[in-house]
């Protein structure tokens, strides 16, 4: 005859015919499994062992049940009959795959924000740009073209500064005086950058314009205070800035040192603006090119 269990109002249970009652306090309700030892007619309830609890997830195993306890579900134990999840498919057993647009690191879901994507794209672009500079032949070495540009551009700056200073006192029109002021400001700034770079590259620079430039300045000074001065000054500045643009383009296209080429590229729009101010013998005063 098989023993029967009865439930008490306080939540405990007992087994009649088993030689006594097996009582459990209401606060302690472990997962139980019915075990019938051979030759024993009374079914006694014992706490389920870890092996028995694990067997709940395997169909057909001893003591398998149709549902898992909440604690087992939290640990990722599947119910009997659940389809097995393939490994390597995003999260492993009991772990859902990472949602689209996120990345998983140490169990934490990190959103793939546009800022992160932009930073990555940006890093790749910088690497490509540095490689392209090397491919185009720009190096740290100093070629003859680089040295020629530094010395000739420096002398042109000195000549333009002197011509601008002379125009402020010798010109008869306000427009020419204003253009002269602009040339002084811009070419001083350009020359400051040039002399600093030449010093780092150990390039010795002359301390005066070329003899030809000095002669042109002397010829202009002889016309000071006359209308002819303004006309000749505009013509001289147009020719000088065209020659400077050719010098700059030669460096950009044929130079080798990356820093010298960058210097030429920065100076070109300023010199081109100066040319527009005096081109065709017409004065067109504009603000300084704001060269830093």
UniProtKB/TrEMBL annotation:
Pfam families: DUF4142. Residues 145-279 form the DUF4142 domain. It comes from the Bacteria. PANTHER family: BLR2558 PROTEIN. This is DUF4142 domain-containing protein. Transmembrane segments: none annotated. Residues 1-108 are annotated as: Disordered.
């Amino acid at each position: 005859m098989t023993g029967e269990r009865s439930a008490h109002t306080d939540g405990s249970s007992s087994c009649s015919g088993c030689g006594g009652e097996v009582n459990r306090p209401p606060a302690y309700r472990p997962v139980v499994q019915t075990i019938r030892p051979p030759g024993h007619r009374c079914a006694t309830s014992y706490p389920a062992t870890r092996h028995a609890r694990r067997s709940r997830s395997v169909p057909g195993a001893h003591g398998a049940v149709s549902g898992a306890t909440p604690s087992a579900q939290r640990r990722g134990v599947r119910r009997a009959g659940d389809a097995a999840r393939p490994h390597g498919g995003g999260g492993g057993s009991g772990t859902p795959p990472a949602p689209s647009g996120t990345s998983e690191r140490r169990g934490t879901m990190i959103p793939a924000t546009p800022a992160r994507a932009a930073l990555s794209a940006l890093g790749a672009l910088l690497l490509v740009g540095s490689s392209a500079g090397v491919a185009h032949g720009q190096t740290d070495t100093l070629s003859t073209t680089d040295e020629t540009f530094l010395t000739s551009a420096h002398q042109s700056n000195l000549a333009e500064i002197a011509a601008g200073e002379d125009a402020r006192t010798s010109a008869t029109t306000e427009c020419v005086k204003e253009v002269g002021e602009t040339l002084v400001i811009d070419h001083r700034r350009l020359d400051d950058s040039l002399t600093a770079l030449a010093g780092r590259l150990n390039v010795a620079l002359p301390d005066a314009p070329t003899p030809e430039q000095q002669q042109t300045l002397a010829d202009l000074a002889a016309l000071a205070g006359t209308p002819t001065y303004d006309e000749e000054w505009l013509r001289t500045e147009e020719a000088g800035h065209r020659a400077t643009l050719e010098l700059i383009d030669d460096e950009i296209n044929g130079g080798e040192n990356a820093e010298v080429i960058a210097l030429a590229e920065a100076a070109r729009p300023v010199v081109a603006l100066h040319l527009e101010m005096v081109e065709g013998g017409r004065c067109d005063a504009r603000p300084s090119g704001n060269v830093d």
